[in-house]
């Protein structure tokens, strides 16, 4: 920032770039510091250019280059303390801890708690609630590999059987927890894409996977690989799609006009979805059962699952359109070695008995909190068969265990 720490806000304007005046000694209007942090995080992750920031915010900031990703980071934090030169932003594993009297990017973005923090006269910002997470960190992990080949297979087969009524009607795709349309692939140890999609581009796994596809061809796994993994020389620095973008691609591939109906409650996610699909496709609220009754395909991928919200999710499965639900499989830490948790088993059995669903479980670990995932679905015979074959293809190639529950 161009102001010194002795003059907390010499221009007396809100530093988020809105241009509004603030009282002497203040840096932000009430609540506008959250906007400031959100925009800086987008610049840091490469989702937004610094040139696209509000003019007032750009004028209040001086910039330096991150030594790892070559992205832009400020030279001072919101409280006027200098960010030392030659550091990495908090989106990179080489971020150094702050020295006495200095700050680093992690304080601004609250990505890491180890590197300093806000000044003592300012209360610390709370971390995410238990069970909540930024899906950017999870995008492209093992669960996404299973989830997305399953979605492509099930949706492709369902769209292929679509007979519009009336003749010019669009295929209606509904997603109750849409998430981001796309996610950045950055060099942050918190980001899990290297454990999932990263393996499919790393030798010798890549060659073994290609050989397996030649021996046992699966068109849906081939679509997933060709569309999202094969094009770039490297995955790092690119993006990986969310379920809504994949669904749009499948319908376009089938040359079937589609009407997307997407729900999410996160302002950042809604903004991201609107930038891709426009405002009409997105509702910035929680979906209800009545919202999805007329859909031709329903996809459900909740950010977390508890005993309480499972009852709400369960209602979406009872009757209605063809449905695909993705859920994590958590470990039962009361036993040794840890197996599948009682909640994961209960969810699967209730979906099968009460809602007439089938299930496919994939296990990739025996230790840790999340040891696998399960797909719960009520689909046509062809779509269910395509889903199981696609999931088995990537699971076998990865050395993961699968089990079907008809």
Major sheet summary line:
9 strands, mixed
What share of the residues does DSSP label as strand, in percent?
15-25%
Based on DSSP secondary structure assignment, what is the total number of beta strands? 13
Strand-pairing-aware structural class: alpha/beta
State the separation between the terminal residues, measured CA to CA: 61 Å
User: Which homologous superfamily in CATH is the superfamily of the largest domain?
Assistant: Vaccinia Virus protein VP39
Q: Determine and state the CATH class of the largest domain.
A: Alpha Beta
Helicity range: 25-40%
CATH topology of the largest domain: Rossmann fold
**Tally of discrete structural domains:** 2
Mass-distribution shape: globular
Radius of gyration: 23 Å
Number of helices: 12
What does this protein look like?
The chain has 406 residues and is an alpha/beta fold. The chain has two domains: 1-127, no CATH class; 135-405, Vaccinia Virus protein VP39 (Rossmann fold). Helices cover 33% and strands 15% of the residues. The protein is built from twelve helices and 13 strands. It has helices at 32-45, 55-59, 105-109, 135-138, 142-160, 205-215, 219-228, 243-253, 267-277, 307-317, 342-355, 381-398, and strands spanning 63-65, 72-74, 171-175, 182-184, 239-241, 258-263, 282-283, 297-300, 323-332, 339-340, 358-363, 370-378, 401-405. The strands form three sheets. Strands 3, 6, 7, 8, 9, 10, 11, 12 and 13 form a nine-stranded mixed β-sheet that branches. A two-stranded antiparallel ribbon has the order 1-2. Strand 11 (358-363) and strand 12 form a beta hairpin. Helix 5 packs across helix 7, helix 5 (142-160) runs parallel beside helix 8 (243-253) and helix 5 (142-160) packs antiparallel against helix 12 (381-398). Mean pLDDT is 80; it is low at 1-8 and 90-132.
């Amino acid at each position: 920032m161009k102001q010194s720490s002795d003059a907390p806000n010499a221009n007396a304007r809100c530093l988020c770039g809105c241009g509004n005046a603030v009282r002497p000694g203040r840096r932000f209007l009430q609540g506008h510091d959250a906007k400031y942090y959100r925009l800086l995080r987008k610049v840091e992750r490469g989702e937004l250019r610094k040139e696209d920031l509000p003019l007032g915010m750009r004028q209040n900031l001086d910039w330096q280059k991150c030594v790892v990703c070559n992205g832009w980071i400020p030279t001072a934090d919101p409280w006027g303390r200098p960010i030392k030169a030659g550091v990495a932003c908090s989106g990179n594993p080489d971020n150094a801890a702050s020295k006495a009297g200095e700050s680093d990017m992690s304080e601004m973005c609250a990505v890491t708690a180890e590197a300093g923090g806000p000044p003592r006269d300012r209360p610390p910002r709370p971390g995410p609630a238990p069970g909540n997470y930024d899906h950017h960190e999870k995008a492209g992990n093992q669960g996404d590999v299973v989830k997305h080949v399953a979605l492509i297979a099930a949706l492709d087969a369902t769209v292929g059987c679509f007979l519009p009524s009336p003749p010019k009607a669009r295929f209606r795709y509904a997603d109750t927890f849409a998430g981001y349309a796309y996610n950045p692939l950055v060099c942050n140890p918190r980001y899990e894409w290297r454990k999932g999609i990263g393996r499919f581009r790393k030798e010798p796994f890549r060659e073994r996977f290609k050989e397996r596809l030649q021996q046992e061809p699966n068109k849906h796994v081939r679509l997933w690989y060709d569309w999202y993994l094969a094009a770039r020389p490297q995955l790092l620095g690119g993006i990986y799609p969310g379920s809504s973008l994949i669904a749009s691609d499948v319908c376009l591939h089938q040359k079937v006009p589609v009407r997307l109906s997407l729900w999410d409650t996160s302002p950042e996610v809604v903004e991201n979805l609107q930038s891709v699909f426009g405002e009409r496709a997105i509702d910035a609220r929680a979906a209800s059962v009545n919202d999805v009754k007329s859909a031709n395909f329903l996809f459900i991928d909740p950010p977390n699952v508890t005993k309480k919200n499972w009852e709400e999710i369960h209602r979406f499965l009872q009757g209605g359109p063809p449905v695909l639900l993705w859920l994590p499989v958590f470990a039962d830490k009361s036993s040794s070695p840890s197996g599948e948790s009682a909640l994961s088993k209960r969810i699967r059995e209730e979906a099968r008995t009460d809602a007439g669903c089938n299930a496919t479980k994939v296990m990739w670990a025996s230790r840790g909190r999340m040891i696998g995932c399960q797909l719960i679905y009520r689909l046509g015979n062809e779509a269910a068969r395509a889903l199981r074959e696609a999931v088995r293809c990537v699971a076998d190639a990865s050395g993961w265990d699968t089990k079907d529950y008809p």
